[in-house]
Amino acid sequence: MSIDSILFYLFAVIILGSAIMTITRRNVVHSAIWLIGALVGVAGLYLLQGAEFLAGVQIIVYIGGITVLFLFVIMLVPVREEALTHRFSSQKWIAVFCSVVVLVILMAFVVHGGGSLEFPTREAPLEPGSLTKNSEEVGYVLFSEYLLPFELASILLLVAIIGAVVMSKTRKSETES
Amino acid sequence: MEVTTAHYLVLSTLLLFIGTVGILTRRNIIVILMSVELILNAVNINLIAFSSALQQIHGQVFSIFVITDAAAEAAVGLGILIALFRNKETIHADEIDLLRW
Amino acid sequence: MPRDYIPILIFVVVAAAFPIVTLLVAKLIRPSAPGKTKLEAYECGIAPETDTRGRYSIRFYLVAILFVIFDVETIFLLPWAIQFDALGLFGLIEMLVFLAILIVGYVWLFRQRALKWA
């Protein structure tokens, strides 16, 4: 087994194990900590695939930003005793059954269609080099071919700022009383 | 055993499965939002796997947009959660049943 | 290619192993005398009156949200800065439009006084 395969299986175990822990933990803070584990594993996979820039983005935005956001909201909302004993909703077995059916179908697609995933490699494959190289590549494509999505992303972020602030702002009447 | 694109697809399918189960079974909305993040990560694993299999950079650029989306989704989603808690005093998905009959 | 990152992997492993080994060694060496008082929250000697997880102000969340949004903005700024020469004036205008849209949000925040800490 090559070192690539070993690393892939290592990261796969980290991702899936942490993901299972994320959705089963009783304490929400523990869920958030395990979520960080899963995100680190995904960042490792990015590095393995030569996407260094994205691995950095994953660490900075997901782990440094979004997880912190989750932890802040957990601190804002008090826990109830009853929530700790009943963490799954009543339809859990039906839900698991339906998800397993979907999983089986998707797996059948991947297993039977595995042959069509053998892509012909280009004559001159991209140089999966250092961080700068990958970032340069991403930057050039992002700002030339993906011009419109890039500008739309800024509008999305603007909407996110306004939406989040409007949703969470205390109303005037509340602060006065 | 050589790791192929199919391996990455299987991994991402399993992650999607775990995320779906989390969304459908958990009561706490914060954990549901975390499961959404897991699913978005499964999407990103796919995009990166194809990007490296096809030797094209487009998958990576697309992943950046997915991550941007995830950040916006988390910000607004958690904002809605806080507004909900203020009005209903609950963050449990099965207790918000105003539209159920 | 992953060979280039082996030093980083070793660094991560050592960083993860350090607290684990330290705690394990401490657990093996120290005398074990568990007690209920030791698990209580320490509040200058008086008995704690409320739960440790009191409610925080919503302002923390607002600041965290703005941090995340402008964090994502940086993600777009970095590749632009790296490719500044190749993209030239067109890239500059592109980025200025991007920033202008986001600054609208920033100005709106200031007008709403969402950042005021009082």
Question: Could you list some keywords that capture this structure?
Answer:
heterotrimer, B: 101 residues, mainly alpha, Helix Hairpins, 3 helices, C: 118 residues
Protein model, in words:
The complex is a heterotrimer of chains A (177), B (101) and C (118). Chain A is mainly α and 177 residues long. Chain A has a domain of 81 residues: Four Helix Bundle (Hemerythrin (Met), subunit A) (Up-down Bundle). Chain A is 76% helix and 0% strand. Chain A is globular and about 55 Å long. Chain B has 101 residues and is an all-alpha fold. Chain B has a single domain, classed as Helix Hairpins (Orthogonal Bundle), CATH 1.10.287. Chain B contains 3 helices and no strands. The longest helix of chain B is centred in the last third of the chain and has 31 residues. Chain B is elongated and about 50 Å long. The N and C termini of chain B lie far apart (54 Å). The mean pLDDT of chain B is 88. Chain C has 118 residues and is mostly helical. Chain C is 69% helix and 0% strand. In chain C, helix 3 runs antiparallel to helix 4. The radius of gyration of chain C is 25 Å and the shape is flat. The chains are: A mainly alpha (177), B mainly alpha (101), C mainly alpha (118). Chains in contact: A-B, A-C, B-C. Chains A and B meet through helix 1, helix 2, helix 3, helix 5 and helix 6 of A and helix 1, helix 2 and helix 3 of B.
Short structural summary:
The complex is a heterotrimer of chains A (177), B (101) and C (118). Chain A contains 8 helices and no strands. Chain A is mainly α and 177 residues long.
Compute the CA-based radius of gyration of chain A: 21 Å
Could you give a short account of the major beta sheet of chain A? Answer: none
Terminal-residue CA separation of chain A: 68 Å
**Unreliable segments of chain C (pLDDT under 50, ≥5 consecutive)?**
none
Report the order of strands and helices of chain A: HHHHHHHH
> What is the residue-mean pLDDT of chain C, rounded to a whole number?
83
Note the main sheet of chain C: none
